[in-house]
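Input record, target 12 of the design panel.
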C-alpha cells in the first residue's frame, strides 16, 4: 500500500473510529498491501452485502449491495473530506442510495444517487427492474417494468 493510501485509510479510520476493529489487511502475491473493511448493514437493510470500503481494485472502492463506486482517493491529501468520504457520509445519512438496474438477471448498471433522483438517473437500456437499497432500509424498493 503506498504511503498516501495508507495515510488516507488511517485518516478514514480516525473519522470512523468504530470501524477500526473490523478492518482487515492482506499482502498480495506482488507484495502490495490491500485492505478491506466491511461494515455490516443494519438488520432492517435488505442488502446483499454490508458497506464495503477497500483498495482491492487498485484504487479506493465504496460498495453496497450490487453497487460499486471507484475513486482516486478516499480522502483528499491534507483534508478530511473528498468524493469517497462524502459518498460514505451521504450514504450512511440516507442522502444517497445504492441503485442497480437489471435486465432479468443481468446487472446493467449501478450508481449511488440521491433518493429523489433514481428515476432520472442514467442507465443503459434495456432494463426491466430497478433495485434500490439504502443503509437503514428506508428507501429499499424493487421496481419492475
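The sequence produced for target 12 reads:
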Amino acid at each position: 500500500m503506498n504511503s498516501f493510501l495508507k495515510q488516507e485509510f488511517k485518516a478514514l479510520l480516525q473519522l470512523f473510529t468504530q470501524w477500526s476493529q473490523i478492518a482487515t489487511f492482506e499482502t498480495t502475491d506482488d507484495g502490495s498491501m490491500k485492505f478491506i473493511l466491511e461494515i455490516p448493514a443494519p438488520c432492517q437493510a435488505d442488502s446483499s452485502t454490508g458497506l464495503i470500503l477497500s483498495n482491492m481494485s487498485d484504487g479506493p472502492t465504496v460498495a453496497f449491495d450490487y453497487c460499486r463506486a471507484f475513486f482516486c482517493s478516499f480522502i483528499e491529501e491534507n483534508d478530511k473530506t473528498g468524493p469517497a468520504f462524502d459518498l460514505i457520509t451521504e450514504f450512511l445519512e440516507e442522502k444517497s442510495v445504492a441503485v442497480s438496474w437489471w435486465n432479468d438477471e443481468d446487472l446493467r448498471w449501478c450508481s449511488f444517487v440521491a433518493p429523489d433522483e433514481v428515476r432520472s438517473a442514467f442507465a443503459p437500456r434495456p432494463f426491466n427492474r430497478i433495485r434500490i437499497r439504502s443503509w437503514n432500509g428506508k428507501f429499499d424498493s424493487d421496481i419492475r417494468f
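The first helix runs from residue 3 to 15.
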